């Protein structure tokens, strides 16, 4: 009889960021919108989470509140043990600089700097020196070794986006927030980028939270959170693109696909 596979060793699950009963209300009176309605969620070290949901379901608001880019109306958003609402503007800026990495659709690279200079810029501004071994590992993981002396206009869109990811990883942030990071890429470059993000989670134990509309992009994540009307209504682990698409179709506010198409 074949021996049973040994049980997977449970990994210590360090909570890197946490929302507790987080609500966000915009406007007053008739223009009042509840963008987030008592959301509680944890993000763990070395975990890749995708956030999906119909337009207006609160994805960006959740990311902005968790990243300290927007304030909460009630409840709490924490990074590590730090309650973001307890911080003043300067402390928040410092926390974002030291603990949070961002990857947006627009790469936001400086055209006059080389790829390497763009990667190390946030640390230069903070007066910190990148750990050369770590930087080397990131550059190798992202396949940028031969491109470090190039300026952004000498790089493809995919390579520019990888430089943006390297920039986010270099400061060893507690957590990286990515907003539609593949939105401007062709499907091959997008797949490459998502592969690298997933690799940074596996090989570098990075924590990544990504907002996306794309079920294929979400399938690179370890879990997918589904938002509808400001609430987390579903969660999928080890998702496939088809499973994500299925759940998306059943969400409140989702447009049911036309059976004739
Ligand atoms: N600054 C703001 N002022 C007023 N209402 C806002 C503001 N930002 C977002 N909202 C509203 O909050 C709700 C959630 O918006 P949010 O941008 O988080 O949704 P989303 O899921 O990211 O949408 P999309 O997929 O279209 O980007 C929406 O109804 C939106 O109109």
From TrEMBL:
Pfam hit, one: ABC_tran
TM region positions: none
Keywords: ATP-binding, Nucleotide-binding, Transport
InterPro entries from the UniProt entry: AAA+_ATPase, ABC_transporter-like_ATP-bd, ABC_transporter-like_CS, ABC_transpr_LolD-like, MacB-like_ATP-bd, P-loop_NTPase
Taxonomic superkingdom: Bacteria
Domain (ABC transporter) ranges: 17-254
One cellular-component annotation, GO: membrane protein complex
Gene Ontology terms, MF aspect: ATP binding; ATP hydrolysis activity; transmembrane transporter activity
Name the UniProt record assigns to this protein: ABC transporter domain-containing protein
Species in which this protein is naturally found: Streptomyces caatingaensis
Lineage: Bacteria, Bacillati, Actinomycetota, Actinomycetes, Kitasatosporales
């Amino acid at each position: 009889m074949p021996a049973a596979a040994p049980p997977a060793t449970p990994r210590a699950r360090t909570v890197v960021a946490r929302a507790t009963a987080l609500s966000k209300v915009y406007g007053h009176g008739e223009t009042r919108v509840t963008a987030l309605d008592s959301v509680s969620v944890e993000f763990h070290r070395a975990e890749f989470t995708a956030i999906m949901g119909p337009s207006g379901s609160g994805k960006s608001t959740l990311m902005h509140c968790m990243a300290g880019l927007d304030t909460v109306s009630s409840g709490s958003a924490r990074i590590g043990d730090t309650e973001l609402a307890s911080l003043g503007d300067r402390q928040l800026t410092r926390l974002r600089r030291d603990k949070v990495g961002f990857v947006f659709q627009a790469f936001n690279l400086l055209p006059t700097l080389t790829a390497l200079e763009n990667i190390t810029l946030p640390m230069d501004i903070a007066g910190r020196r990148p750990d050369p071994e770590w930087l080397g590992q990131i550059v190798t993981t992202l396949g940028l070794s031969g491109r470090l002396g190039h300026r952004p206009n000498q790089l493809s869109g995919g390579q520019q986006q990888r430089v943006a990811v390297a920039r986010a990883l270099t400061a060893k942030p507690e957590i990286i927030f990515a907003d539609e990071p593949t939105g401007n890429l062709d499907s091959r470059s997008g797949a490459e980028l998502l592969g690298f993000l997933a690799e940074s989670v596996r090989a570098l134990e990075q924590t990544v939270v990504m907002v996306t509309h794309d079920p294929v992009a979400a399938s690179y994540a370890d879990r997918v959170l589904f938002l509808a009307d400001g609430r987390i209504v579903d969660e999928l682990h080890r998702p496939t693109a088809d499973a994500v698409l299925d759940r998306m179709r059943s969400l409140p506010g989702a447009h049911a696909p036309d059976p004739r198409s």
